[in-house]
Amino acid sequence: MDGAYGYPLRHVFLPYCEAEGITEPAQITGRLLDRLSAQLLGKTTRYGREMSKHSGHAYTRAINHFLAWATQEGESVAVKAQLPRLPRQLVDVLSREEIQAMEDAAQTERDKLIVRTLGDTGIRVGELVALGPSDLLAQGRNQYLKVRGMGSRERVVPLPPALYRRLRRYADRNRPAETQSDRLFLALRRSPFGVFDALTTSGISQLLRILAVGAGIKKRVHPHLLRHSFATWALTRGMNPLTLAQILGHSSLVMIQNVHAHLTPADSYDALLKVLARD
Predict the structure, then answer these.
(1) DSSP type of residue 138
(2) Are 147 and 135 in contact (CB under 8 A)?
(3) Non-local CB neighbours of 16 within 8 Å, separated by 6+ positions
(4) Residues 169 and 56 in one domain
(5) Residue-wise pLDDT tens for the chain (279 aa)?
(6) How distant, in Å, are the alpha carbons of 102, 107, 147, 197, 227 from that of 129?
(7) Structural domain tally of the chain?
(8) Cα separation, 250 vs 45, whole angstroms
(9) What sign has the CA pseudo-torsion 91, 124, 49, 82?
(10) What is the β-pairing status of strands 142-148 and 154-158?
(11) Is residue 154 located within the same domain as residue 118?
């Protein structure tokens, strides 16, 4: 399926391998991948524009995901493509007040919970739509979400008690009988087949855009922005990066370091003052 992952593989990587006479994954070398990375910078995209460094970075990342998958499947692939270096930019995040404004703009408890869950856990949108009622876990006095992340890896994500109670109440009271889905978040209207289907990632994205407009937010709001905002907020509140990486489902601190790079100058200023205040 073409898309952010499929298109680079079908229309860039596989044709390149064919042109280079590559027929087995074991034939892929670092030098071959380096040449591909260099070619991408001058390549024309499917929209007729010259490929930017950001697009080349995304294409290369998709290729690396494929090579990692091939390795997991038993293929002999010991290399990965070098990601193009991107210019660092200060990016927008949503403040806690803006997330609250989006929740307030929602008309249903389902939509409010979607905003609050993304904003207070940092889970991916694909992880959100895959949640079922049985993924709400209570262990002693602590509550968690059981999340199936990338590579089908499971993890538990801590939930604030108030959010757990809301999700539990929603799961117990708001599941129509006319559904064949085991998902937590369902569509509000029946499908043409008369059942309530599970929400999709594109449906969540559209919902967040609508709520952002309703909340008067001018930024481009999408699911990953809430994830990034949660990570930034957690770091500025002093959360250990190792703990944050575990919550977010990262296998390394690289992504957390990228978040550090996106902290605003005001965040850095406040953090420095807190350190100096301890002397």
Answers:
(1) E
(2) yes
(3) 36, 39
(4) no
(5) 445 567 788 888 888 899 999 888 888 888 888 888 888 776 766 666 677 777 777 888 888 888 888 888 888 877 888 777 766 555 688 999 999 999 999 999 999 999 999 999 999 999 999 999 999 999 888 999 999 877 678 899 999 999 999 999 999 886 666 566 788 898 777 665 556 678 889 999 999 999 999 999 999 999 999 999 998 888 888 888 888 888 998 877 776 776 655 655 555 556 555 545 554
(6) 19, 19, 10, 11, 14
(7) 2
(8) 30
(9) positive
(10) antiparallel
(11) yes
pTM: 0.64
Q: Choose the final residue of a domain: 27, 56, 72.
A: 72
Contacts of 275 (CB under 8 A, 6+ apart): none
**Which residues have a Cβ under 8 Å from the Cβ of 129 and sit 6 or more positions away?**
183, 185, 198, 199, 200, 201, 204
Angle, CA 211 vertex, CA 160 and CA 234 arms, to 5°: 35
CB atoms within 10 A of CB 229: 22
Could you list the beta-strand ranges (E) of the chain: 136-139, 142-148, 154-158
For residues 250 and 131, give the distance between their C-alpha atoms in angstroms, rounded to a whole number: 19
Length of the chain: 279
Helices (H), 194-240: 201-214, 223-236
Q: What CATH number is given to the structural domain containing 133?
A: 1.10.443.10
Query: What is the distance between the alpha carbons of residues 104 and 225, in angstroms, rounded to a whole number?
Result: 18
User: Which structural domain, as residue segments, surrounds residue 55?
Assistant: 6-72
Q: Are residues 152 and 262 in the same domain?
A: yes
